[in-house]
User: Fold these one by one.
Assistant:
Number 1:
Amino acid sequence: MPEFSKILVANRGEIACRVIRGARGRGYRTVAVYSAADSDALHVEEADEAILIGPAPAAQSYLDIERILEAARCTGADAIHPGYGFLSERAAFAEACARAGIVFIGPDPEAIRVMGDKAESKRRMIAAGVPCIPGYQGEDQSDATFIAEAGRIGYPVMVKASAGGGGRGMRIVTASEGLADALRAARAEAGTAFGDDRLLLERAVIEPRHVEIQVFGDRHGNIVHLGERDCSIQRRHQKVVEEAPSPAVDPALRARMGAAAVQAAASIGYVGAGTVEFLLAADGAFYFLEMNTRLQVEHPVTELVTGLDLVGLQLDVAAGKPLPFGQHDVALRGHAIEVRLCAEDPASAFLPQTGPVHLWSPAEGEGVRIDHGIRAGTDVSPHYDSMIAKIIAWGADREEARRRLKRAVEDTAILGVPTNKAFLAEILGSGEFAAGEATTGFVARHYPSGSADAATPPEWVPVLAAALHSVRGGAGWRSNGWMAATVALSGAHGAGRFSVRRDGEALLVSGEAGETRLEIIAQDEDSVRFDIAGHRRLARYAFEGATLWIAAAGGTWAFADTTHTVRRAADEGAGGSVRAPMNGVVTMIDAVEGERVKRGQRIAVLEAMKMEHQILAPMDGVVETISAHVGKQVATRDILAIVRDGAVA
């Protein structure tokens, strides 16, 4: 039986914090690893020890196997938990751990290798009798073969990266004329993302449910399933909302899907936590999609409905212990739903966002759990995934879980970096989701270009902003001789000008909508309770230079104090400037100086947070200047190119 006493967590963020807590609960010492970008991260503080493993880029830190192993050697860690992402599904990492005499808390390398290759895993599943989607996963990778196989399979077809995951290297093709372009694009994306451009084809199942089964195996021949999770609400094949159990699965279907998942795991001698993912068609047929040979992001919903500690079970199984229960002991109680809180701008096609977190106040309440690895002062980096927290709620039934989660999302305050919080609350409040009818086409159907712009704040929110700006720091509330002030504010919702003056213990705030009497009941450095016309409310706030962030009434707004701002004409004159929408690396330049371009034509491609983003021409005109080059790291608002009206010289 393998023995270990100190666990190195080869990850970061919320999953590193989760594993550290789970290991501590089992009595193990823990070691965190961190890059230069994460020196002040929460997971570094929570571990017993922490080791710097390299600079910010993941390839030089969290993905560097030798640096991870050296950190284990120098701290005496005799086991490694990979979390999810990064090295968690790299067979080479599991093998390297074994050679170093370190226990890898996960499946054997061969299981990782087989299931990490989509073509090979599908061949194995077909041989094992697991239902699979008709497709082609052969070694002949010529376009001619793919075209012939697509004709045999029937359109629409899905082109997928054989070594892929996370939606990268994936294209849906509805007719034969689009296949060649899809193959070319998918190969390029797969080669960049995985270093492997092999592809496979599958018949596309239109708007299915994405239902996955949690499995667990030990080294004593026991394999069980822990029910299903429904992960149908996805954006670009990235999960957004997950729940257990699925509203589309009854006990009979659960038994069939669970048996198929156990069969899949048994066919490769699987050990540890894994997830077998299926597509569930409207007629009740289900098909093997892939197997994730690690702990899933969405594991908390399974924990909440089963009462099991999946991280604790991983540690027990890695130590050679048998599972302490059998299939007949697994029972689902109540309902749990999880959403992924991401640093992104839903109103701008979900572009990832970076920057400091000025306030982080996760919601609390019965049945609410929030897994995170951030705090005030955390800097959201462009080098890693945009997910910063998971908000989860349990209820006696699905509707109670949904209500609790919607409130928890609305009550969670994060200020300083834009997030998808309002988008998540909107999904949870939609009739289609509430009815349990959402499929994988939900986001594309309702939000084809992203979420709507930030909602206009209630009238009292800019009034509060004007008051807080005028007495910034709180020193003026009881100061004799406090003078009237004029405050000009601007934000995504528009601009306004206010006059603020004292009226006894209150403030009179005058603007276009009239005069409002506002009284501060209590105020500290990040929250304020106030009264307007006998209606008392609580708001959270944070200042970032001249910008005030306010979280209130379930929304988040930013108000810049423009009272003394003089806009530079030169800056405003750059109307044809093509700017970086976020921090990232330029991976492609598609235009040359002197080229005539159309509005919306691709100028460049920027990679940030593991996603590629097309940078488009803002107008018809001529490319006057290209100031970026492939491989260049750029910051938000950096000018990449300038497009001017006029003919080519």
Number 2:
Amino acid sequence: MSQFPHLLQPLDLGFVTLPNRVIMGSMHTGLEEFPPERQAAFFARRAEGGVGLIITGGIGVSELGVLGPGMCKMTNEDEAKKHSVITRAVHDAGGRICMQTLHAGRQSYHPMNVSPSGKPSPIYPFPPQKMTAEMIESELESWVNSAALAQHAGYDGIEIMGSEGYLINQFLTTRGNERDDEWGGDFQRRMRFPLELIRGIRARVGEKFILVYRLSMLDLVPDGQTFDEVITLAQEVEKAGVNIINTGIGWHEAKIPTIATMVPRGAFTWVTRKVKEAVNIPVSASNRINMPSHAEDIIARGDADMISMARPMLADPDWVKKAAANHEEEVNTCIGCNQACLDHTFQLLQSTCLVNPQACYEDQLIYVKTDKPKNIAVIGAGPAGLSFATVAAERGHQVTLFDADTKIGGQFNIAKQVPGKEEFNETLRYFGAMLTKHGVKLALGKRVGADDVKDFDEVVLATGIIPRKLDIPGLDHPKVMSYLDVLRDKKPVGKRVAIVGAGGIGMDTAEYLVHDHSHVPSSLDIREFCKEWGIDMNLVARSGIEGIQSSVSPSPHQVWLLQRKAKKIIGPGKTTGWIHREALLKKQVQMVTGVEYRKIDDEGLHIRVNGEDRVLPADSIVICAGQEPQRELQAALAGMGKTVHLIGGADVAAELDAKRAIGQGARLAATV
């Protein structure tokens, strides 16, 4: 009997029945700009995994509407022919797929972009041209044509991208639309663009073609839609011929996190529920939903009819198949880190996944059963060692995993204690399940010497890192601690704390110190999260935020976060760094850059900033300034003639990088 009856229940749309309630949501991976065979392999793998409906990354509907120069579009039959490779692969794998049709409007990285009123975006560099009435009609026809070409290419339907601040959102709000003609003014005229679009598409493609509309339910920017306007639009798009409404939350311009790991799971399903209650077609929830049991609960309690997940399908293409087999413990959970997906996308790199290096490399990183099993020792059960051990064992090697600690996890055991990084527990649960499934032998709680592994064919050193020693007078003062003293060993920390080093470890340590650990953090409490970021859960405030003041619980420590470099402290992630910074500023953390460390004594930490000497009266001084590799076994093993591989921190001890560690471990394991 299924543990997830609501999630796995078929959905009858009248002309087609979807096998379950799981949508693989849209995300731009960078594969769109490669030959279609690579994208075909990517989507087909998810179809094999049982996803009910796949939605592609955003495909431009015209030259003006593309995300950037030379980026993917659907404007002619030659482009449709290339897409047929994708649809054929998905259908051969037993799946169904919709193409997301997108017009970026002013959110385009090219100088020919357009918008309803010519108002520029605060985060995109190119000012848009104001659309004439003739241009609006032309772009509408281009969109309809793109939908028809998608049907010709074999897609089962399309998703109309009506959220995230793209062109449709720009038409719907006074933030983007200051027109006073038939395309702007009151809301009836502002919503004319999406309604004309839907009617035009439905007339062109017929009734037996899935139309999904991505509805912005909370804009989270000034001058966005009221919730009454959102409901009105939802009802009107249903009348116009849409089959499914999907949830969109927040513009790209919003200064509120919506999908990062510090956002609680299912943080916005309460909004989706209100829309679901107002319409008669299926409504899908999205944003920070990553496990079958959570998805099941959302549908069972009536918050949504379907669940749309993008990044969780990067993390585990067999997510649905594992749920159907009642093996939730084997799901490789998306931790919402964004480091290998969105961070890559915004740097114009190909996406992958921190916890699944095969993502987007399905045709390149392949785990083939070995015909020459080896007896391999892995020393270090952190992310790199776990990744190598599980993949090597899956391929058929005999693997023994050693660690001086009594539990697996390495640095993840430290990181998972930081408020906002609780999802790291899921990665350790997954690796634990894989160690058992693939028969990895564990040898924990013992520091390994060279003689302990002399009988193995090969040895993998994944021993991680140790904190780097700094040259600051007074470093041996009782006030001084390492981040391991704080996060791992739970040593007492004074009321006033100076943190030396503002990289990822420094920011994590600050985040840990500014929370009262007797209270549930906002990353686990939806109401606390909305209060902290100023979101109106009563849905009265325009855009969900106007006039709402954020409120945070006070920090139990006064914290200074210090950095040698003179540049702004922003955090390590391109798409999440600003969130960490804003969260710390809300907790009154003082961020100081361009710091020269002078000495430590009973007075505190003596520093010089811009030529001015200062003394920070810190009770505790926490060192978070880099690390060095642990490789003490390497020479001894090499002297014994052993083949030794270095991975993770033992190889490169730069800023802690689980993405590199897990990827390096998997790639080595695929070749030994």
Number 3:
Amino acid sequence: MEKTLTAPADSGLLDVAALRARCEFIASTNADYRDRMRRELLAAFKQANAAGRERAKALLFADGSGLQCAARISWLQDQLISVLHDFALNHVFSAGHAAPAQHITVTAVGGYGRGTLAPGSDIDLLFLLPAKPAPWSTPAIEFMLYLLWDMGFKVGHATRTVEECIVLSKGDMTIRTAILEARYVCGSGTLFDELNARFDREIVRNTGPEFIAAKLAERDERHRKAGDTRYLVEPNVKEGKGGLRDLHTLFWIAKYFYRVRDPAELVKLGVLSRNEYKLFQKAEDFLWAVRCHMHFLTGKAEERLSFDIQREIAEALGYQPHPGLSAVERFMKHYFLVAKDVGDLTRIFCATLEDQHAKEAPGLGAVIISRFTRRSRKIAGTLDFLEDRGRITVADPEVFRRDPVNLIRLFHIADINKLEFHPDALKLVTRSLKLVNHALREDEEANRLFLSILTSPRDPALILRRMNEAGVLGRFIPDFGKIVAMMQFNMYHHYTVDEHLIRSVGVLSGIDQGREKEAHPLTFQLMPGLEDKVPLYVAVLLHDIAKGRPEDHSVAGAKVARKLCPRFGLTPKQTELVVWLIEEHLTMSMVAQTRDLNDRKTILDFAEKVQSMERLKMLLILTVCDIRAVGPGVWNGWKGQLLRTLYYETELVISGGFSELSRSERAKAARETLAEALADWSQKDRKTYTRLHYDPYLLTVPLEDQVRHAGFIREADKAKQALATMVRTHSFHAITEITVLSPDHPRLLTVIAGACAAAGANIVDAQIFTTSDGRALDTILVNREFPDDADEMRRAATIGKMIEDVLSGRKRLPEVIATRARNRRRSRAFTVPPAVTISNGLSNKFTVIEIECLDRPGLLSEVTAVLSDLSLDIASAHITTFGEKVIDTFYVTDLVGQKITNENRQGNIVARLKAVMADEADDARDRMPSGMIAPAAIPQQKRAKAEQ
């Protein structure tokens, strides 16, 4: 679709007359020196292009219009190509006076064909040849292309006759779309007009449904590849859901089917309302502004709005911080609101066409289904809504105005009847949002219907997402509306806050309906026994509803829940339970991941906070739903096992059954279970390898891993290996697991972490155990690097070999670590102020040191080295990574097994650790051990005694 935007005469992008005059001068002074003429011509064009684009960049910062910027660069490109075309014909091939029938045509296609061009985008050109091209045509085209390439442009091009264009477009939808968007740049206007006329007559006429079906299928596949959600926190501005390509799909279909030249004509046709059209205009201008800034900032065609550039783009667009939200978070919230508008309106537009021209059979063949042949039927229990081919639609345009509760009832009826939504119904909902007022929010029936949707035994997440996309959810619950499209500027959360909450409800529904039995066996068992599930569903939906506020979101969220729950119809008892769950929704996760679950005080403190089994069950389920909905790869079996261990230990305390005997009996049962799993082993081996582990290992590690470890240790013993490593990949979780068997040593974790850093592996979690014969069995999780399992296994084997070489003394770490440290890329996108907390109240036996800072390769190695330098014995370590932030907890004593109580010593520990966390300890790496670790000389680490 051609744009009417043009560069203003006073834009200063390019003095076309001056460029032509310079070209004439170059031609006149270099007539006999073709190579020199080309060099000077290239220099002139490069200078003109650079100056023009710099001027376009300055104007973008001045007026902020993305569409104008894209139009200016397109105009600049047009002028450069036109001048180049004329120069080639007049001065290189002497064809300026050739007969008009011999002239070629240069047309812009793709995004460039729409009259918009991003600073780093490809230039797509279609060269039209006459039926009988002149001998100079192809050389002239090659001359132009080579000069454009030498200027640094990426040029996509095709050279065809009009007849070839028509033939190819019949069987290739990509070519058909390109020709649909073709725009005249220079050359023969007659040839271009002929292409347009024939294309309209021979291709477009009567093929609207075919084109629509292909474009909708193409859109769906593009969305699938991009993640099928517009709420990814690093969105693709061009290809992502709600991005510019969705607008392009609208333009293509509008131009092809409705035969319009300007999107404004869609208002006259009744396809869009005037307000919807204005919304599209604003969205397009905003997305173009973001895209142009991205290209200017990175110097390339960057389409992914990554964390690395979000802050700078926000600054360029003038966003300012707000209490509770940084400038970049405000910018990204605006981005997602725009993407939501684009996605919703495009979906309504495309769904309307899809409904009018549905395919009866797969493939490109399609037939028009007349709007007059629809057969709507009544839905039991309502006169306001009808079913139309599996979709719920309105009985008349006054449905919502007549009874605003119908804005909620529509979604409730769709849920209980498992109906999709008719585009006419969604369009009417969008245009009726003003009816969602205070009266509707306080309406008892409306709240009853909403609670029924939330706790539906079918698919509540789907209905809530439809309500959110239509704008109803944020209006009905204004506090939810505040977090719609809100992102959190960190690497941990993959989705916006509203999408995270809806996904959390989806996980809860899956557990409730038994679909998560294998992934979450404990929650599957607990769910049916809950006295009342309603508070849990409400807590899951609201647990992050206060994100983006100055105060702690758990505390603020509890206040919101105290206000909302009575409105939803919850009793005072239910309300108090929801409030408590939201206040404590992070507690179980943090205790499980950052505390020593084998320390009795950890369990007693947690049990005191929970107090009842019903709370414990619900908090566990809420925690699972929360972690699972953060994003792909965040949840793993390790976290599941930690949560189960915390649950079982706390259950014993709350039920009054906590005792060393109970724990011992459970460990005994676990040992017997392991022995049964090793039934095909000899009795001697079973006895040896089941007695190898202390109780914490048996109570914490899943049986599957215990069996793997037993086999691994037995093979190492048979081979008489003092040092051994075992690796496996977890492609779904994007992590790789490395298990190390080694003689125990106080600095073992430091050495392993250093070896991983030397091999370029970033540790995201660690599990440390000591065997009864004085060996260490440590499992390290590192970030995955390769998508292919075979490649990742080779990398993991290299890391394992590095660990073995360092532990055996064959390699020395300090030099390698130092080199990696110098070349390390620090993340400019994130800042996490280093923090160190020392507590003697979290454990009866140990001092607990917790550090929080920005994660980086080698950090764990440096921190543990400092702890060893400070004569601290690490009994257990808990490594937890939340995206770019790391929270590591170390249970330590001094060398005689006592807590660290001296304030001066504590202050020294904090200072030394903060220096390392800030990467200021230049000599920290030099203190790491690198010599041979002789098994006979290794003192057994005190953590083994602590584990007993």
